[in-house]
Amino acid sequence: MATPAKNAKVNPVSAQTQSESLGDSHKKSTSHDISGAEIVIRCLNAEKVKFVFGYPGGAVLHIYDEIFKQNGFKHILVRHEQAAVHAADAFSRATGEVGVALVTSGPGATNAVTGIATAYMDSIPLVVISGQVPVPAIGLDAFQEVDMVGITRPCVKHNFLVKDVRDIAATIKKAFYIASTGRPGPVVVDIPKDITAHKTSFHYPETVEMRSYNPVLKGHTGQIKKAIKLLLEAKRPMIYTGGGLVLGDGSPELVKLARTLNYPVTNTLMGLGGYPATDQQFVGMLGMHGTYEANMAMQNCDVLIAVGARFDDRVIGNPKHFLSQKRTIIHIDVDPSSISKRVKVDVPIVGHVQSVLAEMNALLATEVNQTGKSTKNDISDWWAQINEWRKVHGGRYEMSDTVIKPQYVIEKLWEVTRGDAYVTSDVGQHQMWAAQYYKFDKPRRWINSGGLGTMGVGLPYAMGCQFADKNAQVACVTGEGSIQMNIQELSTCAQYGLPIKVILLNNRYLGMVRQWQEFFYENRYSESYMDSLPDFVKLAESYGHVGMQITKPGDVEGALKEAFAKKDKFVFMDFITEQSENVFPMVENGRGISEMILSDEKKGAK
Amino acid sequence: MKHIVSLLMENEAGGLSRVAGLFSARGYNIESLTVAATEDPTMSRMTIVTSGSDEVIEQIIKQLNKLIDVIKVLDLNDGKYIERELMLVKVKATTPHREEMKRMCDIFRGRIIDVADGSFTIELTGSGTKLDAFIESLDKTAILETVRTGASGIGRGDRVLKI
What we know:
The structure holds 2 protein chains of 2 kinds.
Chain A: H1 15-25, E1 34-35, H2 36-46, E2 51-54, H3 61-69, E3 74-77, H4 81-95, E4 99-103, H5 107-121, E5 126-132, H6 148-152, E6 158-161, H7 168-180, E7 186-192, H8 193-197, E8 199-200, H9 221-233, E9 237-241, H10 243-247, H11 251-261, E10 265-267, E11 282-285, H12 292-300, E12 303-307, H13 313-316, H14 319-323, E13 328-333, E14 347-350, H15 353-371, H16 380-392, H17 406-416, E15 422-425, H18 429-437, E16 446-447, H19 458-468, E17 474-479, H20 490-495, E18 501-506, H21 511-520, H22 536-542, E19 546-550, H23 556-565, E20 571-576, E21 586-587, E22 596-597
Parallel strand pairs in A: 2-3, 2-4, 4-5, 5-7, 6-7, 9-10, 9-12, 10-11, 12-13, 13-14, 15-16, 15-17, 17-18, 18-20, 19-20
Antiparallel strand pairs in A: 1-8, 21-22
Helix pairs in contact in A: 2-3, 2-7, 4-5, 4-19, 9-15, 11-15, 12-16, 17-18, 17-23
Chain B: E1 2-10, H1 15-25, E2 32-37, E3 43-51, H2 54-66, E4 70-75, E5 81-92, H3 98-107, E6 111-115, E7 119-126, H4 128-137, E8 143-148, E9 152-155
Antiparallel strand pairs in B: 1-3, 1-4, 2-3, 5-7, 5-8, 5-9, 6-7
């Protein structure tokens, strides 16, 4: 990972001459030369970075000294490096820009790993700069040394160890380019401390050319034409979109396509907001906790178009069961390795979703103009069937006068925020209820850890969203298990005056674990009870935040209104909810997606 | 089915571990892997012998292509190719078996590259199956030591892996 910048149109020094001249490179400095640390700052400024989330430490002290002297970006001091990466990740999810985190070597670097892996699984563009021990100390088990490039290799899109001050600028340029193009992902740049002290002249390359990395942009027109033909001939079509549609900013084109065709649309957990949830054509989320109608339509369709989605195990259930029903599959994805990975695809289209969908829309329009035919393929029988399925479960849950139902809190949250909040979640039952009951009409509003399923992301995700849009309503839907995994960030929220609203659905259980234990382990609730919980109201107040505890269903709406009226206050809302509530529908692990359990009564009869 | 995958990648530190890590993380088989710089010192060429169903091989090729440092990947099994491997074998060679061992070496077109009082070291190149056959035809008790490089592969005729 030495990074002679041979492909970046700058500094064409071979690896050998670099290592030979390493010792001199900083001695021969001229008056225009600046330190590696300052180069790092200048690079971030050149990338127009607005926020750097980080935590200082020995190996990055030169960089922090330069941060002190600059005002190009704002540094956000978190309370744990994991939260720095999560916050940068959420900032990226909310804005589409590359998120940036800065951590020190050793424990700072390892603390960041969960955040990096989370971003990697959900394809979020990040540049994570980690400090490293000085080059001569590498490999000698120095204080706070860890092989960051080795540790992160399986969970980054790419990583670099910079061993020469003259390579810093070109490497950071490459890092931003790699992170944000093709299928996005996190890139780690590991910089030894001595390199940040060495001096050289600064030149930030304007473009990057890499012979080994040329992401595909445009889809193959022949394939796109084939797809259109199949779509127009479908009798039971289905549009299935995922996180790739959101990340590729393809939502407007998809809405146009779906409306032109009048076909049903489902979103994955990662894809929510990609198609407006309040629209009639939307059949809800699909998958393990998807709606009855979405899963049935997915299973029974004859032509399926997948857009930036990857047929993962939580979405299609057992692939054998899924394939037992014949259907033609069209798959648009920027990453060729996502195509035909779990399910064989008939018409693969490798390309950027936005450009491929735009081309599809243009082709459909010409088709209408040239043939005079309407693209309105009559699928009224299919819609009739879907509408029947809609009646089967319909997101019903049993209301109670005495105890707060978690689903009810989310429904009220949607009403009180008029469906316009950034909603982050942690991982577990509350995540599924938020996904099921908050109707997202816009992309980049639903921020959660879909792939890795990282408990503890909720609060730092909310921080990232609030920095992305300081006037926005930001709600963190969480559980009493998850929130305690990054609870220290209450301090960061206090420092920066972030008016986040925490919606804690407190059922005194690790709810999703408890649900599985009830269903599959004969109610043996092994270690899933959360004992010794703090008084969350007092805890919040101790940081100077507002704390509220809500115990009665009748108080839910009023409390939410009161909290969101406090526009400049962080409010921690502790909702004491039904303990034994389960998430339905549910597809048992290993079963087909149409084999759903719909309620507590039916779970025995699965 | 056995496949030989050839690839070109940036000759940078850590390249080998990215490829090896990919195979172990995704549970792909790896029978042998050889790597060295090419005539252009900025590039390395790797030959990987692997096995799996067509779907698995397709994924392997796609995942290799996805590595940022990988420039080009070629599944040699998509066409005609030549495969060669080098093996060094140290065998017992004591009278009266010395002549017999020399003859066996000649039959397989091997070369004796080191001669000692009680042993020969034989150099043999060829496809993996030829090397296996040589080992098979030797008396097992005569083999003192073997070392193999793993296969290197190249396409026949006009098939060229180059940027």
